[in-house]
Design brief:
The structure holds 2 protein chains of 2 kinds.
Chain A lengths: L1 H28 L3 H8 L1 E6 L2 E2 L3 E3 L6 E2 L1 H14 L4 E6 L5 H6 L5 E2 L7 H6 L1 E9 L1 E6 L14 E5 L4 H8 L4 E5 L2 H9 L5 E5 H10 L3 E4 L6 E7 L4 H16 L2 H10 L14
Parallel strand pairs in A: 1-5, 1-6, 9-10, 9-11
Antiparallel strand pairs in A: 2-3, 3-4, 6-13, 7-13, 8-11, 8-12
Helix pairs in contact in A: 3-9, 3-10
Chain B lengths: L1 H6 L1 H32 L5 H15 L3 H15 L5 H27 L2 H9 L4 H31 L11 H12 L2 H30 L1
Helix pairs in contact in B: 2-3, 2-5, 2-7, 2-8, 3-5, 4-5, 5-7, 6-7, 7-9, 8-9
Classes of the chains: A alpha/beta, B mainly alpha.
């Protein structure tokens, strides 16, 4: 009898937690993000903290730095005026969609590729960058292209679509998913895998700081990055798209590309410039 | 939720299997290692006592994740290649063994010293007295706290997810990030953990009643 009571208690508390979270989602997604942001003059962006060149927290001064950070600042100013502020919240590939869904962030600008699967859950702005998936290996590695990875171990990051993509090109590869890029890179260095896979631009950023490792072969997918926006926010999405167009039209976009990618070995910045 | 469970059944089950295997291995070895170090902490020889103390204090006071990362990233760099599952299980074993050592030592200390003295005066060696007189009584005392340690061990095995150990948490992370059904996935993962931990809790309660 005592045992039965206990089981009932466990189940009811689980259900309670479950129903509470369900309610929370509904009330937040019904709020108009653009209206809120106009009032507070702030847009809260989810950004990466471990991706050099795109979104990285500088350990020296604690500031977010990178192409996506600068682009987010520029878009915020175009959307809400010169005195508007961009606020940054660190996300990972795994946490970004849940954080957007529960309203902790207004938008995701964190190396996220627009994919059909993700479009079922969230909306995307127009693409703001065209990356492609590639692999990084040790300088003397026998691996020349992604197909060489069959029967070998490849390291990726949990929640990124590169771990799902790579199985199409090397179906027999063993895939290890680690929590973030810093750890994935360390795992590659300590020999836990034969190659690290993600988008070429992220790998290029890693190669800058890590002599002895290089990008290998051409990009084998195209990965258009989009700004992730919650479903049911058409006004906010339209405002982001309009601001993105303006940033590209007035030359700010290309300036930022040259600032961050102008001098990266193994990455041709001219391919990603926009008119 | 049912749909999520059935469509990812093999991933959940393989994760469950690896978690179970890791927990069983870590439980077995940490019980042996922990008991050894507990005895080391109470032997008459001072040097051995110090070794026991140092081991327990170091590994009881370092986060489990740090120990595991050390085995996953540092050891392969210099000594021998070990995969995530092994690194996680070794970390789990060492970490838990330090706690078990403290628990068992407390049990040994709570046995009346007269028991040991009486055994020795009958001509038993220290180790014999330990084995036949003190330890059987000590383990009876420490069954409830040991049960806690075992439950903690199973829950701590989620550290495997951080080193790609293919356990329940790892599969949960992967499924959540592919299906975007975050809440449902982690509720299922939680239920799978309960399937392992609740029987341990009950068995320990049962054992406690039987022996007390």
């Amino acid at each position: 009898m005592k045992r039965l009571k206990y089981i009932v208690l466990v189940i009811t508390s689980l259900l309670l937690v479950f129903s509470l979270t369900a309610c929370g989602n509904q009330s937040l997604s019904s709020q108009n993000i653009l209206e809120n942001d106009k009032k507070s003059k702030t847009v809260t962006w989810g950004v990466k903290a471990d991706t050099k060149l795109l979104g990285l927290i500088d350990v020296k001064d604690g500031q977010d730095k990178g192409f996506e950070i600068d682009l987010a600042k520029a878009i915020t100013k175009k959307m809400l005026g010169k005195d508007a502020k961009a606020k940054f919240v660190t996300v990972t590939s795994q946490s970004r969609i849940p954080l957007l869904k529960n309203g902790n962030i207004d938008a995701i600008i964190a190396t996220m590729t627009i994919t059909p699967d993700r479009l079922k859950t969230i909306d995307f702005s127009d693409s703001y960058f065209d990356a492609g998936q590639s692999i990084m290996v040790k300088d003397n590695s026998p691996i020349k292209k992604v197909q060489d990875l069959n029967n070998r171990t490849i390291i990726g990051v949990v929640g990124s679509n590169s771990v799902q993509n790579v199985k199409k090109f090397a179906p027999k590869a063993r895939v290890l998913q680690l929590p973030d890029y810093a750890q994935a890179l360390t795992a590659l260095k300590s020999g836990q895998g034969d190659a690290l896979t993600t988008d070429n631009v992220i790998l290029a950023g890693m190669a800058v700081k890590n002599p002895g490792y290089k990008l290998q072969g051409k990009a084998f997918t195209t990965e258009p990055y989009g700004i992730g926006i919650n479903k049911g926010q058409p006004e906010f999405k339209a405002a982001v798209n309009k601001a993105l167009k303006e940033v590209q039209a007035d030359g700010t976009y290309n300036k930022l590309i040259i600032k961050w990618f102008g001098n990266v070995p193994g990455f041709n910045y001219k391919e990603v410039l926009r008119k | 939720m049912i749909h999520l469970l059935t469509s990812n059944w093999s991933a959940f089950i393989s994760g469950f299997g690896w978690t179970l295997l890791s927990s069983i291995l870590a439980l077995f070895f940490s019980l042996i290692i922990g008991s050894l170090f507990a005895i080391l902490e109470v032997v008459p020889n001072k040097a051995l006592r110090i070794i026991g103390n140092v081991y327990v204090e170091i590994f009881r006071n370092i986060p489990l994740l740090v120990i595991t990362m050390f085995f996953y990233l540092v050891i392969p760099l210099y000594i021998v290649k070990i995969n995530g599952f092994t690194a996680g299980t070794i970390g789990l074993t060492i970490y838990t063994s330090a706690f078990i050592a403290e628990t068992v030592r407390a049990g040994i200390n709570s046995v009346d010293p007269g028991q040991m003295e009486a055994a020795r005066s009958q001509g038993m060696t220290f180790w014999k007295a330990m084995r036949y007189i003190v330890l059987p009584q000590a383990f009876k005392y420490v069954i409830p706290p040991l049960g806690n340690q075992f439950v903690n061990l199973v829950k701590n095995s989620s550290v495997l997810a951080f080193v790609a150990g293919f356990d329940l948490m790892y599969q949960g992370n992967a499924i959540a990030s592919q299906t975007f059904e975050t809440v449902n996935t982690y509720v299922i993962v939680g239920i799978f953990y309960l399937i392992i931990t609740l029987p341990i809790s009950y068995y320990m309660q049962h054992l406690e009643k039987k022996l007390a």
